[in-house]
Amino acid sequence: MYRWGMVIDLDKCTGCQACVVACRQENNIPSAGEEEAHLGRAKFWMNVVSEVKGNYPNVEMHFLPIPCMQCDRPPCTMVCPVAATYKNPEGIVAQVYPRCIGVRMCISNCPYTVRYFNWYEPSWPEEYQKGLNPDVYHRRKGITEKCNFCIQRIRRAKEKVKKEKRKMRDGEVVPACVETCPSEALYFGDLNDPKSRVSRLSKSRRAFRLLEEMGTEPKVYYLKEGEWDVGE
Q1: Which residues pair with 53 in a beta bridge?
Q2: pLDDT score for 126
């Protein structure tokens, strides 16, 4: 059984937000527009938080990409009254969009603020409609949306290896954010495979997880800046 996870090397992240753009394109996430953004209704399945450290002129920019943490003990699934969100056997916190009734309790119970409510009926200009991903479910107005590690790519890879009657190779599943990162700061793979890169990096002395003290057991690991392990 797979257990999908991600590692993000903060030493490599440049804050370019290519991952954010790729996630939007891959998952048919419409732009909220300036007016909706002013109302706090901007929508991103992945966000890059920036922080300025130091005093001018000796300042440094630091960046923190934040997708869904895909928690092993997800607080969002405990409060949904219609079980629209759940953790699947491979550890991905999935969202059954047709079942969601938009009560937003999962948003309130997520400490990472990675869930977004769809305030408006999604629409795209005609010239952009040919670029929509046919493998991704079209979400309606009034539901909660979130990152799912590009589960459509995971399913496609699993179908391929099943057809070829072989095991999944490390690095064979590549979410959109990982594929597009120009500095290769993101890694994705099976945490249950001790030989996979994400499994090895998750055990690095540089590794940490956001709000780990809350007991949510996220499967997204970060590597601290300015420290290195031999063999990474």
Answers
A1: 60
A2: 82
What is the reported pTM?
A: 0.91
Identify the segments of the chain with pLDDT beneath 50. none
Provide the domain limits for residue 214. Answer: 4-223
For 66: left if phi > 0, alpha if psi spans -120 to 50, otherwise beta; the answer is: beta
pLDDT in tens, 11-26: 999 999 999 999 999 9
Is there a contact between 62 and 51 (Cβ–Cβ < 8 Å)? yes
Q: Nearest CA to 171 among 206, 198, 192?
A: 198
| Three-class HEC string of 51-70 | EEEEECCEEEEEEEEECCCC
pLDDT value of residue 174: 97
Rounded Cα–Cα distance for residues 94 and 227 (Å) = 34
What length does the chain have? 232
The total domain count for the chain is 1
Instruction: Name residues whose C-beta falls within 8 Å of residue 211's C-beta, 6 or more positions apart in sequence.
Output: 111, 112, 218
Element (H, E) at 155: helix 151-164
Q: What letters, b where the CB count within 10 A reaches 16 and e where it falls short, cover 85-97?
A: bebeebbbbbbeb
SS3 label, residue 190: strand
Does residue 47 lie in a domain region?
Answer: yes
